[in-house]
Amino acid sequence: MAASADPVAAKSLARMTGLALPTTYHLLRTLVFEGYLRKLADGYVVGPAAMVPSTPALQSLLPRIRPVLKSLRDEVGGATYLSVYSEGEIRLLDIADGPNVPCVDLWVGVHDSGHATAFGKCILAGLSAADRADYISRHQLHDLTPNTITDRRVLERQLDGQAAIWSDAEEYLLGTACLAAPIRVGEHVGAVAVSLPARRPPVNGHSAALQRAARRLGWAMAGPLISI
After folding, report:
1. Looking at the predicted structure, is the pLDDT value of residue 69 above 80?
2. What are the chain's domains?
3. Which residues, at least 6 apart from 22, have a Cβ–Cβ distance to it below 8 Å?
4. Which stretches make up the IclR-ED domain (predicted)?
5. CB-side exposure of 155: number of CA atoms within 13 Å?
6. Which of 114, 70, 71, 75 lies closest to 92, judged by CA?
7. Vertex 149, ends 182 and 198: CA angle to 5°?
8. CA neighbours within 13 Å on the CB side: how many for 163?
9. pTM
10. Span 78-96, pLDDT tens digits
C-alpha cells in the first residue's frame, strides 16, 4: 500500500498477497483499528501509526521472520503470530495463516488486550516490574469473554509465574485457544504464538515447536537491523 499512489482495494490486496479474502478483511480491520491503515471510499491507504522511524527496520525483518512463522504454522496446524513490546505497547509484527488455518479475528486491538491473549501475557511476564505496572495502569482489563481475567491482582499473580509456555483458554475469543513462547533479544521482549480451535486439545509437540520457533526468531531478530 505504501508503494501505491492510489488507495488499494481489499480484493486487490488479497490477490497480491495470496491471502484468503476473509483473512484479508480481518487483518485490514485490525490495522485500521490500530491506526496503521485508513479506510477510504475506494480502498485503503497507510495510516499515521505506520509513519514511525522504526518502520524500515521492522519491514527489513520480515524476510527473516516470515519463513519461521510459516514453518511453525505448518507444523502445528494453526495460525501463528509474532509480537513485541515497543514504546510501552504490545505490537503485532506479523501473522502466518492460510485458507485452512485462518487467523483470529482481532476485533479488539492487540495493545488493548494484552491481559487476554497468550502472547500478551507472555510479553507482560517478561517485562520489568516497573514496565509491567506501567502497562497495566494504562490499560483497562476489558471483559472480552466470561473467561477473561479482569482483576488486576489476579493477573499480576499469574504474571509472576515463570512459565515456558503461556496460554489463553478462550479468554480473548470464545472457541479459540492460544499458546505462546517468550522471545528475548537483549533488552527487548517478544512472543511467538499459535491459535487453535478450543475444542482441539494441544499436544506435547506444540510446546516444543513453539520453543524452537522462539529460538529461531530470536536469532533472526538479533541482527543489526532490529530497532524496536
Report:
1. yes
2. 1-51 (1.10.10.10), 53-221 (3.30.450.40)
3. 102
4. 49-223
5. 28
6. 114
7. 70
8. 21
9. 0.75
10. 999 999 998 899 988 888 8
